C-alpha cells in the first residue's frame, strides 16, 4: 500500500519550543533592493485580495455599519508588520474563510479571531491528527465552499447571473 504525501507539521511540547522555532529578523536584508520589490508586490496582492473579499462579503451579508476599507487596510498593515517581525507569513482576508463564517451564522468579528486561535491550537497540538486527513478531503471541502460562493443559482444585485463568478473559479479548480 502506497503512503500518501503528508504535510510535515512541527510538534511542540512546550511554549519554549515554540519560541525557539521563531525566525529572527535578518536586518542585512534591508540593503537588498529586491526585498522592496517583493514587499511591494506582496502588499499590493494582499491589499487587493482583502478589498475584493470585503466587497464579496458585503454581497453575502448586509453589515451594519458597513465595513471601512481604510480601517481594514490599516489593520492588515499593522498585522503584517507584526507577523513579519515574528518571522511569519503575510496576512490577508480570504473570501473562502469569510464566507464559511457567514454561512455558519457568524455575527461579529470575534468569529475571525476564534477561527485563527483554533487553527493555531490545532496546528500546535494536534499536528499528528491533522496529518491523517487526506489532502483529497481538504480539496473537496475547498471545492464545495467555492461552489457555494459562485453557485449558478445565485444572482447578482444587478439582476444578472453568477456565471461570471463561477467561471473565475474554474482555473482554481483546474489547479487541483
TrEMBL record:
One of its GO terms (biological process) is transmembrane transport. The chain crosses the membrane at residues 35-57, 78-100, 112-145. GO terms for cellular component: membrane. The keyword Membrane applies. It is found in: Membrane. Keywords: Membrane, Transmembrane, Transmembrane helix. This is Probable sulfate transporter Rv1739c/MT1781. Residues 25-149 form the SLC26A/SulP transporter domain. It is a multi-pass membrane protein. Coiled coil: none annotated. PANTHER family: SULFATE TRANSPORTER. Pfam families: Sulfate_transp.
Amino acid at each position: 500500500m502506497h503512503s500518501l504525501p503528508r504535510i510535515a507539521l512541527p510538534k511542540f511540547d512546550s511554549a519554549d519550543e515554540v519560541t525557539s522555532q521563531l525566525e529572527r529578523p535578518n536586518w542585512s536584508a534591508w540593503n537588498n533592493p529586491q526585498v522592496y520589490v517583493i514587499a511591494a508586490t506582496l502588499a499590493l496582492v494582499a491589499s487587493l485580495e482583502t478589498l475584493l473579499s470585503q466587497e464579496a462579503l458585503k454581497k453575502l451579508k448586509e453589515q451594519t455599519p458597513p465595513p471601512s476599507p481604510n480601517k481594514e487596510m490599516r489593520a492588515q498593515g499593522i498585522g503584517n508588520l507584526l507577523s513579519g517581525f515574528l518571522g511569519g507569513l503575510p496576512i490577508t482576508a480570504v473570501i473562502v474563510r469569510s464566507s464559511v463564517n457567514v454561512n455558519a451564522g457568524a455575527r461579529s468579528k470575534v468569529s475571525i479571531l476564534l477561527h485563527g486561535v483554533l487553527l493555531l491550537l490545532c496546528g500546535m497540538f494536534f499536528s499528528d491528527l491533522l496529518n491523517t486527513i487526506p489532502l483529497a478531503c481538504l480539496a473537496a471541502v475547498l471545492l464545495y465552499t467555492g461552489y457555494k460562493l459562485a453557485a449558478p443559482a445565485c444572482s447578482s444585485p444587478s439582476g444578472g447571473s453568477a456565471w461570471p463568478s463561477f467561471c473565475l473559479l474554474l482555473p482554481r479548480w483546474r489547479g487541483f
